[in-house]
Amino acid sequence: MFCKSGKSLFCEQCLCTCPVPENNNYGLYIRSLKRKVNAFSTYDYDGSVRVCIKESKYGPKQFAALKILAYKGAVNLQTNHKFYEHFTAVPVPLNKRKFRSRGFNQAEIIAKIVASKCGIPHNPELLKRSKETDVQYKHGRLARYENVSGAFAAEPAQIKGMRILLVDDICTSGATFTEAAKTLYEAGADSVRCYSLSRRV
């Protein structure tokens, strides 16, 4: 499917040639709170990585390929243990319409694998969608921030004092991560960091 050899979803050569960014670490900025958010991505959103993430919702083989890629991503993240130590993995929630269509949240699958491999807790209930939003790819960079404004909700009683590692499949403009992190900080989180399996640069 993704490997032209036809022997597997990803052969070792495919995995070794998945596009990796020059710098896995980068920063996002929450203007309203004047806070920087540290972020980390394993792959560039290109080539076989792009195909895998886009196709993962279309069948069991594609879904299995995403899990393989997420596992390799988690292994890569392990080398940066100070980034996630004492944090709880929380997936960026999918809107209800998309969840009904796919039957699963890619971010939650990735978060489970990251949590298991890195030995940290995983809690998909800490961040909720508070409104439906349009798909981000239809919008330009600035419009993406407007599109997700107010899209998330979190309970202060659950969040106060926590260190949260937000997890998603792709980071493009950073708008979704930034809005989600803002929501968590406003609910009392002690620290928020972001991990995406891939990043579009």
UniProtKB/TrEMBL annotation:
Family of this protein: Belongs to the ComF/GntX family.
Protein name (record): Phosphoribosyltransferase domain-containing protein
Pfam families, alphabetized: Pribosyltran
Domain Phosphoribosyltransferase: 108-197
InterPro entries: ComF/GntX_DNA_util-trans, PRTase-like, PRTase_dom
PANTHER family, per database record: DNA UTILIZATION PROTEIN YHGH
Superkingdom per UniProt: Bacteria
